[in-house]
């Protein structure tokens, strides 16, 4: 019975490690672009942005901005909520902290 418990525990830990690696991979890719990085920096300052504000910030077309926002949301670094026709973006501080902790652990 003890072996089964240890085995389940090890499987849970392995699953968590794999999921953490996937998150780090997506998050690192998300911040590798200067437009996405500037969106994250602006979100840190303003707490919330709309798509129109992001378009003004980065000076890109609406389809391009939508692509960048989708990558940020998919990475977990940004949360979105819809209010009418507007999509409001917020920084996911817990995810940013997790990425920061990982990067700090490299040094």
Portion in strands? 5-15%
> Please, what is the average pLDDT?
86
Q: What level of helicity do the residues show?
A: over 70%
Structural class by SSE content: alpha+beta
Walk me through this protein's architecture.
It is a single chain. With 107 residues, the protein is of the alpha+beta class. 72% of the residues lie in helices and 13% in strands. The chain is built from five helices and three strands, in the order ααβααββα. The chain has helices at residues 2-31, 34-46, 51-58, 62-75, 93-104, and strands spanning 49-50, 78-83, 86-91. The protein has a three-stranded antiparallel beta sheet with strand order 1-3-2. A hairpin with a 2-residue loop joins strand 2 (78-83) and strand 3 (86-91). Helix 1 (2-31) crosses helix 5 (93-104). The longest helix has 30 residues, at 2-31. It is elongated. The protein starts with a helix and ends with a helix. The mean pLDDT is 86.
């Amino acid at each position: 019975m003890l072996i089964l418990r240890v085995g389940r525990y090890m499987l849970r830990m392995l699953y968590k490690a794999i999921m953490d690696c996937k998150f780090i991979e997506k998050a690192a890719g998300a911040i590798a672009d200067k437009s996405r990085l500037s969106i994250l920096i602006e979100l840190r300052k303003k707490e919330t942005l709309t798509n129109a504000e992001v378009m003004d910030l980065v000076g890109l077309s609406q389809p391009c901005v939508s692509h960048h926002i989708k990558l940020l949301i998919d990475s977990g670094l940004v949360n979105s909520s819809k209010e009418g026709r507007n999509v409001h973006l917020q920084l996911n501080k817990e995810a940013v902290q997790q990425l920061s902790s990982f990067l700090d652990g490299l040094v």
